[in-house]
Amino acid sequence: MDREIKAASEGGVDFFSLLWYYARPGSEHEAECRLLNRGLANYLASESKSSRRVQFMIEFCNSGPFNASEDQDWNRCVEVWTDAWKSPAALRVEDRIVFKIHDLSRFIAGNGGDVSRCLMQLTQLRSSVHSAGLGDMIIGGGLMSRSEVHQDHPAVKLFDFTATYMSIPDTVVGPTELPYKTLVAEARFAREFHSRDPIPWVPYLPVGWNPRPWTHPEAGADHRRFFTFPTKSEWVEELKALWSDFDRFPGLGLPLRDGSKQPAFTIYAWNEFGEGGILAPTRGIGAMKLEAIRSVFGPSHPVRNISRG
Fold it and tell me: What is the value of pTM for the model shown?
């Protein structure tokens, strides 16, 4: 973790969005979650050595068996998160802690479709954070790139922003690698599509999607979509296109109190080696992708000026 924080910092990365999972005590997934959640644990153990060069936010990965809709489960989550946010390395914008629920539809479904119950849980979370002396929060909900968010959408009532972890274009499934430009076209579409939403959209940028390590020969034909990894020129081009879209679409970014937006985006992904979303340095290409980020978004670039409080 020390090496990863150092590499990310030198490459111009401002924060990690750390996936965090919940399993009920005594459940079959409890041991698995201890491993899945080592990202947050290792980060917090590492922060004194890293001088908090790269901050962190928590993304509650509420998929499948890891949901926490029951009150006692939700309370356990809130306790863990609140304790983690006592770290001065927690990502803040205007002194507000940034947090995201991975899948807003599962969050609502896990509460029986009751939006008021969802709101109650989020209000409890905000209250816990405030009572701990940690101030206010900016809470986001995850949805896919083509999910329409209208004024009556539950997200508008529940969340301060929406975002996606990753969206894959609807292409033919097969063993042939498709062009990287096909993959990032979906991200470009999402930026314009969600720029008119009632609440802000935090854009994402895929650095790759090529999950061959997760494809088993005994399963027969490849069941996933594969894309080529970006060349340096392709990666730089997409970084620059993303930045220009912050000017074109003022609805992108994290919400500020005055109604404006803090330009911010996530990259899929730092170390999804199994799925082929790889920003971390590798033996194959070194730190090329990080070097490109720093060349486009240098230390004095406006998108880097996140107010951390």
Answer: 0.94
